[in-house]
Amino acid sequence: MIENHIHQAENLALSHLDYVLWALAAIWVLGLILGMLKQIVVYRDFNDVMFCGLTVTLPIAAFFILMNMGATSFHGLASYIGWFEAAMALVILVRTSIDNRNPFKAVLAFMVKIPVAILLAVNIVDFLIRPETQPGQEMTQTHRIIRS
Predict the structure, then answer these.
(1) Which residue has the higher pLDDT, 85 or 126?
(2) Taking the complete model, does pTM exceed 0.85, yes or no?
(3) Is residue 141 one of the residues assigned to a domain?
């Protein structure tokens, strides 16, 4: 009986990865709050939002296009996409550091900018690859245009 409770307590213990993830989540929430209070500049304008979003979306789109074309090996493409992503991350970091002169604020803004860009990319991909509508459910005009 006691051994069973000890085993359950061990399963509830947080690992080192959990602590790291909670710390990153706390930093991200701090960055969101400081961004809303305009203490840091996360995105300078809508072009910056889309630039960051497309940095994440373009490799996903390239993967889907090549999969539809019947590609089976992505080793060469992965190398190019890796270099492309590294260059784009450097551009984003430089633009963020120009907007936030304090290096700590620049890193905090960068740490907020990338997860928000990933969320934007996931929503864009979800919007474009939405399953067919149910019988009796209307498709929106935007989806009709995209699907045609």
Answers:
(1) 85
(2) no
(3) no
